Amino acid sequence: MNPEGRVTDTLPLFPLSQGLMPDGMLHLQIFEVRYLDLIKRCHAQQLPFGVAWLQKGSEVQVPGEVPSLHAYGCVAHIRQMDKVQANFYRVVCQGGLRFQVHEVLPVHWVFGKAKSVICPKTLKWPSPSDFNLWQTAWAK
User: Fold this and answer.
1) Which of 5, 25, 74, 120 is exposed most, by the fewest CB atoms within 10 A?
2) Are 41 and 91 in contact (CB under 8 A)?
3) Under 8 Å between Cβ of 84 and 101
4) What are 9-34's pLDDT values in tens digits?
5) How far apart are CA 108 and CA 34, in angstroms?
């Protein structure tokens, strides 16, 4: 625990262009080597991973591109994993607690792990301005 009483952890990161919310379901098709390794390890050890929202960059690794992440993400728990082919899996995950990224620790792929602080359930989730516009449109 850190001095503020929040749980700190090191989470393997899975950056996506869409966010995952607590209790939300996420369907993934895994085929890239860096994500195959992450998913297989987490599944075998029954560990969650962090879905980090991409601020800039692509989900698919592009040579020379350095993606950046938003400050918050959501812990993902693997609920189902099906092997479709040798290096192709369909995975269903469920969102858990939110986390705040404090430091990205790269390993042999772009984003490896992050030193993170698990956020309390009552923390207000910061959202991008386009989401606020969407919320306003739906409220009318």
Assistant:
1) 5
2) no
3) no
4) 778 888 888 889 999 999 999 998 87
5) 8
Q: Exposed, middle or buried by CB within 10 Å (0-12, 13-18, 19+), for 137?
A: exposed
Kindly report the number of other CB atoms within 10 A of residue 112's CB atom.
Answer: 15
CA distance 41 to 70: 24
Length of the chain: 140
99, 88, 87, 91: which is closest to 12 by C-alpha? 99
Environment class of residue 84 by beta-carbon count within 10 Å: exposed (0-12), middle (13-18) or buried (19+)? Answer: exposed
CATH number among 1.10.150.130, 2.30.130.40, 2.130.10.10, 3.30.420.40, domain 8-139: 2.30.130.40
118 burial level (CB within 10 Å; 0-12, 13-18, 19+): buried
Confidence of residue 110 (pLDDT cuts 50, 70, 90): very low
Burial class (CB in 10 A: 0-12, 13-18, 19+), 48: buried
Nearest CA among 65, 55, 64 for reference residue 15:
55
